[in-house]
Amino acid sequence: MRATVSNAWPPEPPSNETEAQKATRLEAERAAKEISDDIDKAIEAERQELRRNKPQTKVLLLGQAESGKSTMIKNFQLYFCPAAFFAEAEAWRTVIHLNLARFVNFLLHILTNPRSSSSRRPRTSTTTAEVARDVRILQMRLSPLKQVEIILSRALSPDGTGVATSPVSSPTLSPTDSRVNAPWTGEVPATEISIRSGSGWKNMMRRRRGSQTQRPVMIQLDELDDTRKVIDACKEDIAALWKTAGAEIIGEIGIDTHHHARYFLDDVQRVADIEYFPTTDDILRARLRTVGVEEYRLTMETAAEKGNDWLFYDVGGSRSQRTAWASYFDDVNAVVFLCPMSGFNQRLEEDRKVNRLADSLALWEQVCKSRLLTNATFILLLNKADVLFAKLKSGIQFEDYVSSYRGRPNKAENVAEYLRDQMIRTHRIHSPKKRHLHAHITCAVEPKIMATVLISIRDTVLVNVLQETSLL
Ligand SMILES: Nc1nc2c(ncn2[C@@H]2O[C@H](COP(=O)(O)OP(=O)(O)OP(=O)(O)O)[C@@H](O)[C@H]2O)c(=O)[nH]1
Ligand SMILES: [Mg+2]
User: Mapping DSSP to helix (H, G, I), strand (E, B) and coil, where does residue 255 land?
Assistant: First the structure.
């Protein structure tokens, strides 16, 4: 018979160990642990030293809310640090399920409380008595999703107390802080979610999975698993709700809103399934509004720059968030500015009088003028090319919103070229010194298309860093 050899450390003491042997063994183990800790400390100190001496690449992402800044960082991570990107997929599932649950609760609220609706159109219409009855039944069957929303909100916040709802996420919302701890209060629920910057929610979610002992008290792992079971059990009803009232709802809330949630609803059978694991596309679509300035340290995994750290500053883009930007201006190698071209016929959530494209262009001018950014590399991304294309194809006329475009073709490539030229001109006129501008037309939810843009951004930024440190 073969003896079983245990690899466990420290090894099990012999069963006939004397007190003296035990004391000697414990002392040896203590000494070994001390040596091991010293080695760990030395390795960490060496790593820190290396970090200090290496020129660090710092990139600041700017642009209005929902321009795609955070999505751009996900793209960067996917391309240059894929292992880290996929390691976070499970944490994103919680965000996606919260996106879904929150939107379904929002839909049910609108459908059953017509007067609180955000509608800019009269609510007529197709809501026959039969549909209304179906919706009432679905509302009852889907009521567990309110609890799911509360649990997932708590799970994502560092202290387990809840995810902040966005004060400007939906025109239907009144910004009440009370909803931070109770996402569902009977008022119109929020559809967007935001987490305070620096909360480290992804690490926290990973730790919860990895360790049974480190679970925070507020949320238990099995509670999270229960939410998946509830969502799975609700998937047929969610699909039925979307089929029954989807068209009417889009009429109510407008075709331009809640893209991310609609993407998940369109594929609810897959996303709500108990076996669901987010795909790359899902992660790029997941929406988490940035509040404050979030710092991301990405350690490159690709051959050429393996081990190099890039630091990204991802800012919240809504107007109330912009005052925080300036303190990051004097210390970055590059600015990536995102202008969502599809905003030409939309208004800012935070100020319904202001056209989104006009706001983007004004913001761009301010950023170009900044003296603190004089030596930074400037990269302009004209984003959401896919949405621009779809809008123009559906017959919406760009010239109806931008009078200086009158008489030109209503085609996405022409519009994109026009905006690109305008923004290059603004940059040329307003830069404190002559500076090259790198402009790209992008669709940040299409990783295959983004690859060449990402490589170009990396090369552009690296050349700037090397010039700054006089290595070129
Ligand atoms: N269709 C489409 N959606 C996009 C594109 N870029 C970003 N999105 C989506 O737009 C939503 C907003 O993107 P974010 O990256 O969160 O926007 P942000 O600029 O970080 O917004 P704030 O954090 O509020 O300042 C997300 O759901 C993205 O998936 C794009 O090119 N096309
Ligand atoms: Mg963001």
Answer: coil
Q: Which ligand is nearest to the CA of 286?
A: 1
Report d(CA 278, CA 185) in Å as an integer. 29
Cβ atoms of residues 23 and 13 within 8 Å: no
Verify whether ligand 1 is closer than 6 Å to residue 444 (CB atom).
yes
Cβ neighbours, 10 Å, residue 434: 6
Q: Which fold has domain 55-81+300-345+352-468?
A: Rossmann fold (3.40.50)
Atom number in ligand 1 closest to CA 288: 16
Q: Which of ligand 1's atoms lies nearest the C-alpha of 263?
A: 27
Task: Write out the residues surrounding ion ligand 2, Cβ under 5 A.
Answer: 69-70, 290
**What is the full per-residue pLDDT of the chain (472 aa) written as tens digits?**
444 444 455 567 778 888 998 898 888 888 888 887 888 787 777 666 665 656 578 999 999 999 999 999 999 999 999 999 999 999 999 999 999 999 999 999 888 876 554 544 444 455 578 778 888 999 999 999 999 999 998 888 756 566 655 433 333 322 222 222 334 444 555 667 887 666 677 776 666 655 544 444 455 668 888 999 999 999 999 999 999 888 888 877 777 778 889 999 999 999 999 999 999 999 999 999 999 999 999 998 987 778 888 999 999 999 999 999 999 998 899 999 999 999 999 999 999 999 999 999 999 999 999 999 999 999 999 999 999 999 999 999 999 999 999 999 999 999 999 999 999 999 999 999 999 999 999 999 999 999 999 999 999 998 887 777 655 4
Using a 6 Å cutoff on CB, does residue 192 contact ligand 1?
Answer: no
Q: Which atom of ligand 1 is nearest to the CA of 444?
A: 31
Residue 318: nearest ligand to its CA? 1
Protein residue with least CA distance to atom 28, ligand 1:
285
Burial 110-146 (b: 16+ CB within 10 A, else e): bbeeeeebebeeeeeeeeeeeeeeebeebbebbebbb
Q: Where do the CATH 3.40.50.300 domains begin and end in the chain?
A: 55-81+300-345+352-468
Nearest ligand to the CA atom of 166: 1
Predicted TM-score (pTM) of the model is 0.82
Say yes or no: CB of residue 285 within 6 Å of ligand 1.
Answer: yes
- Cβ neighbours of 424 (radius 10 Å): 13
Strand ordering across the sheet containing 334-340: 293-299, 309-315, 57-62, 334-340, 377-383, 437-441
